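Bug #77: duplicate submission created two jobs. Keeping one. Sequence:
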Amino acid sequence: MDAVRAKFPEPMYSESQTARRNVDALLRHLHETGTRRNGRIGEGESWLIAAIREHGYFPFGGIVVRTSATREPYLVVADRVGEEDFPAWTPPAPPVARRPGDLANALAPILRCAAQLRFVDPHFDAGVDAFLEPMRAYLLAAQNRRSVGELQIQIHFAVSREDVGQLARIRSQRVTEDEAATIRLDACERRLKPILRPGVTLLVFAWGEGPRGQKMHNRYVLTEVGGIAVQHGLDRSAAPETDDLTVLSKEQYEERWAEYSAAGAPYRPIRNCSFAGDPAVAT
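Kept job's structure:
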């Protein structure tokens, strides 16, 4: 950022002062909402060549350049903005098939760059393949990065009275809310732990109805840089259905991020558990 600011001399005219303020505002926004990578520019290598090489390993949403003689789908050329459309600048956002691969691919841009991931679905149950298979795809996409040291993953689900009643009918015996939560938490550890890379920890929360009757309902993928509403849910569909993934507004995101923070949740905590990927075995 200092390098960008250095390109602008100390302002002497009002136009220069306005331009510098705009640049400062943009840089603050990028610093607050952007994500960082630990890629490196090689000796004698230009930043653009390094960026294209990095894009080949772990794709960016796009690469912004001032000018370019070539046309590539991943480039956004500032000199031609307004004259032509750039796929990387305005990517298409069609409905997404509710299949594990399609859902993970649609969410990949946020899964692979965020350091904090919170998956929210009141009905999530790792013991059910319809939930397990997409979550496996989400976790694999999120861990497809050079280093997972900063990656923090959470899953939030609800245990309702209906859930407890249904489980009691299936078992033909009385079941407590705590027991129903434990069954689903155990399924998470048993079925999701083998998917985690060494050093990655997954924290799972089971929530009950809040003190004023608040119930979990909507489904989200929340990160420190923004959130996505997944209308139907994080599970796959047996039927050929599609879903609309919607980017949350700043105000929506801030409220949901606080809602699914342990300190600010309006729901009643029942139980939680955490587990990590097994350490790598030396060979």
